[in-house]
Specification:
The complex is a heterodimer of chains A (384) and B (469). Chain A contains nine helices and 22 strands. By secondary structure, chain A is an alpha+beta fold. In chain A, strands 11, 12, 13, 14, 18, 19 and 22 form a seven-stranded antiparallel β-sheet that branches. By secondary structure, chain B is of the alpha+beta class. Among the domains of chain B are: 104 residues, Phosphorylase Kinase, domain 1 (2-Layer Sandwich), CATH 3.30.200; 124 residues, Transferase(Phosphotransferase), domain 1, CATH 1.10.510. About 13% of the residues of chain B have low confidence. Classes of the chains: A alpha+beta (384), B alpha+beta (469). At the A-B interface, helix 2 and helix 4 of A face helix 3 of B.
């Protein structure tokens, strides 16, 4: 087991100007489950393949433990890419399926048996070792496939979208299994996904990438409570954060007819290039319903109410007469807002509800740079 | 989302029963073909004159693989041909079904398992691995990283006394401008592991003699690959006689079946030598030459064999007035076509024409050897058609499993199941749940099929409720 260090590691594909991965600095602790996440083309898979030795490193270096592996061949890196597609061989026993690759590596027979047994114990497969895969259930077969990687006892596991082949339900089951297994094994793991929910639920820490540049790395809680910039704020969280650009007047941001008092800390970071504007973000659960026209309240005209039993979400529009409405947006479209409300008191389509951002739950970003300028949102200030 | 088919201009595709899960497609559509190990539901389906391979998978993967196969086809790589991607499939009851990737089944191709019907000879095995190493080199030269090299993921066609391998499964692959050494090394590592596993499995089922060492064969692939790769890409330096050295290099590549499209020559730093580096190498040297001369489109080793015969033909009919093109035309009409036409219609599904010609040449050699004198081609052909060809298996569309076995899992065919096709076992034929994919267990015996009626089953009519007055 080992740490993994990316030290200003870059990958520039031949014939391209922009780096696919640009000076990535990342320290992964021994035994940590780190998830690389970001939209398609952000460089997450390239970063993983740089560690695996499948992509050249054009600048900087990569270390596994205290050994530099920048120019080491994949098979000599002591790293296992865990395949989404391991074949299980029907005429070989479970033990042979798990151990045969070690034979190729000329590992001694007794040693193979011992490693296979150890892996089987972790995977709850001990009693099936001498059976054929046919006799196993689907889940057990999956674990045999995992076993093939485990018996190699690598320093690091790498997984590139291992769940992309699965349907939605199995994906949820399997991600729990992988996360649990990784914790039992305690092997450093780097996992790539485009799915931020997968990242939040699985990772000890998450690294968000965009356009080849690391945006932020932190625990799921860090990412949620203190996104470092507008991109991370919009990317992490489901439903997504409401984000808009607003004029600042005095110490307040003007949202339609409402005025919202901004944190003093955020105001102190405002610079000339922000041109008296801020990007303000607030999560759907950070809103309270208030009386119409009360101070700091925003009107929302209800389009759709989504009732989930434990929660209800309102998708609505800030009415057009509010001047800056076009700047408020969330994932589903322009000028829309999403709020979580009490499922026992839901408005009807066409109603107007008035909401206010709860104290201390605003995320403020510089309009010029998109960087965060407000303090972290404290999780415990949030109430249902 | 409504049913959506992207791909070939083939309107008849829309008539296939996309509203039924592939594993439950009616027998009338299914061609009985062997299936290799696959992590998806795959079926071979009769369509017009040909056979299609249909694979169920998710839409992103289907589109990605389709695009890559299209691009590889454009680059003239040896792969199966992509036909279409089908998305938006839905059962009549409104349940969403997987997307499907449709490819054309390669005529006269054999999955490696079909070659183990009788215990495989070591030599055949080495040829298969040789073919796979050539395929891997060709794909790597084009910038294709395979990601899951194995015997299962390739198809093999007889190619004179060798085999040619074709890429079947590009799902894990990626096409890039140029591969890194790490990617090539990793592909080789995967290949070695997979081939060893596949052979160990064949030994487990008793289809491969215990005397064969799977590790040896696995390592052989890497060795062959490295030899070929360095022959094709290595930089050689010449201090004198540069012209001859370049010509030598070209001939060496031609012998390996490759053409040198572009070359880089550069003076070394100290100015005492010239470094020669092949820049663009294309496979199919003999293939293209034969195509140019005769219009025959055959595989590389077949082409080599036919060209040898053509050269011999020209030498025998030594007419100084006749140029190569005329000689080729003569050879085609006097040698090749009569031989191929001598095969009765009923036997034409056995082997490809070029392969038949190759085998007749082989047969002719043996006849001549035992007779002690030359045997004319028509005699050799007649003997081959009478004594050899009928004993061969049909390989145009290899029939490896009985229809009964293939359709055993089609509950829709039995009356007791009515017209619903709810799959009894969620894991039956479905490996996609496993991110370690699982091959289908292959039963020793075909399962017994109970089929009471083959007539179309109509939905049971509900008894009309007695009117309650």
């Amino acid at each position: 087991m080992a740490t993994v260090t990316y030290d200003k590691a870059s990958r520039i594909y031949p014939g391209t100007e922009r780096a696919a991965v640009d000076k990535l600095d990342l320290q992964i602790a021994d035994g940590e489950f780190l998830v690389l996440v970001g939209p398609s083309g952000c460089g997450k898979s390239t970063s993983l393949r740089m560690l695996a030795g499948l992509e050249d490193i054009d600048a900087g270096s990569i270390w596994v433990g205290d050994r530099e592996v920048t120019h080491v061949q994949p098979k000599d890196r002591d790293i296992a890419m865990v395949f989404q597609s391991y074949a299980l061989y029907p005429h070989m026993t479970v033990a042979d399926n798990m151990g045969f690759a070690l034979k190729i590596a000329k590992v001694d027979k007794a040693e193979i048996r011992q490693r296979v047994e150890a892996a089987a114990k972790i995977l709850d497969l001990t009693e099936y070792l001498d059976r054929k895969p046919k006799a196993l259930s689907g889940g057990q077969r999956q674990r045999v496939a995992m076993g093939r990687a485990i018996v190699r006892q690598p320093q690091v596991f790498l997984m590139d979208e291992p769940l992309s082949n699965l349907d939605a339900k199995l994906r949820v089951q399997t991600r729990t299994q992988i996360a649990a297994l990784q914790r039992r094994l305690g092997t450093t793991t780097v996992y790539v996904t485009h799915d931020q929910v997968e990242a939040l639920t699985m990772g000890d820490r998450i690294a968000v990438l965009k356009d080849g540049v690391l945006q932020q790395v932190g625990t799921p809680r860090d990412m949620y409570d203190a996104p470092a910039n507008v991109f991370v704020a919009g990317f992490i969280g489901s439903p997504a954060m409401n984000i808009g650009t607003f004029r600042v007047e005095g110490d307040k941001a003007q949202i339609g007819s409402g005025k919202i008092a901004l944190q003093r800390e955020a105001l102190s970071h405002l610079k000339a290039e922000d041109k008296n504007s801020v990007v303000l973000g607030f999560r759907p659960e950070s809103l309270d319903r208030v009386a119409p026209n009360s101070e700091g309240a925003i009107p929302v005209q209800v389009d759709v109410v989504e009732e989930l039993g434990s929660d209800a979400f309102v998708y609505g529009e800030v009415p057009q007469d509010s001047a800056d409405a076009k700047d408020i947006h969330f994932n589903a479209g322009d000028s829309q807002m999403i709020l979580r409300i009490d499922p026992r008191d839901v408005p009807k389509k066409g109603d107007t509800v008035w909401v206010k951002i709860r104290e201390g739950e605003q995320h403020v970003f510089s309009a010029a740079t998109g960087e965060r300028i407000s303090a972290e949102v404290k999780s415990d200030s949030r109430k249902v | 989302m409504p049913l959506h088919i992207t791909g070939a201009a083939d309107a008849a595709l829309i008539e296939l029963p996309w509203e039924i899960p592939l594993s439950a497609w009616p027998e009338e559509h299914i061609a009985a073909l062997p299936r290799g190990l696959s992590r998806h539901v795959v079926r071979f389906v009769r369509h017009g004159d040909g056979v299609l391979a249909i694979k169920e998978t998710n839409p992103e993967i289907a589109y990605k693989e389709f695009t890559i196969l299209r691009e590889l086809q454009r680059l003239d790589a040896p792969t199966v041909h992509p036909i279409a991607v089908v998305t938006g499939r839905r059962t009549p009851s409104g349940e969403d079904l997987s997307a499907a990737l449709v490819t054309e089944h390669l005529a006269y191709s054999l999955p490696y398992r079909a070659l183990f019907a009788s215990a495989m000879r070591q030599r055949t095995l080495k040829r298969l691995v040789g073919a796979l190493s050539v395929l891997l080199v060709r794909l790597h030269l084009l910038g294709f990283y395979w990601g899951d090299v194995s015997l299962s993921n390739a198809l093999f066609r007889r190619d004179a006394s060798e085999f040619s391998a074709y890429l079947v499964d590009a799902e894990t692959g990626d096409l890039q401008a140029r591969l890194t050494d790490g990617q090539r090394a990793y592909d080789l590592e995967i290949a070695t592991t997979n081939i060893t596993g596949e052979l160990l499995d064949l030994q487990g089922s008793g289809d491969l003699d215990e005397s064969v060492d799977p590790m040896d064969i696995g390592e052989r692939l890497e060795k062959r690959y490295r030899e070929l790769w360095s022959a094709l890409t290595e930089v050689s330096t010449a201090t004198s006689n540069v012209r001859m050295r370049v010509a030598e290099r070209v001939r060496q590549l031609n012998d390996l079946g490759f053409d040198l499209g572009e070359i880089d020559m550069e003076q070394t730093e100290d100015g005492t030598a010239i470094a020669i580096r092949p820049k663009v190498v294309d496979a199919g040297f003999h293939q293209r030459r034969l195509m140019r001369l005769t219009g025959l489109d055959v595989q590389e080793n077949q082409a080599r064999r036919l060209l040898n015969d053509l050269d011999e033909f020209r030498a025998w009919n030594d007419d100084p007035a006749m140029d190569e093109a005329n000689a080729a035309h003569d050879w085609l009409t006097r040698m090749f076509e009569p031989t191929v036409r001598a095969v009765p219609r009923g036997l034409r599904g056995k082997l490809e024409p070029a392969q038949v010609y190759h085998e007749v040449l082989e047969h002719r050699w043996y006849l001549a050897e035992s007779a002690g004198h030359d045997v004319p081609m028509p005699v050799a052909t007649a003997s081959y058609v009478k004594h050899v060809l009928p004993k061969k298996a049909d390989e145009k569309a290899v029939l490896g499993r009985s229809i009964a076995e293939m359709t055993a899992e089609l509950p829709a065919l039995t009356e007791e199941h009515g017209d619903t096709f709810a799959l009894p076992d969620p894991y039956a034929n479905d490996n996609t749940h496993a991110w370690g994919g699982v091959p289908e267990p292959e039963d020793e015996e075909p399962p017994t099929v109970e089929r009471r009626s083959l007539r179309p089953v109509t939905a049971p009519t509900l008894p009309t409720a007695p009117s309650a007055h």
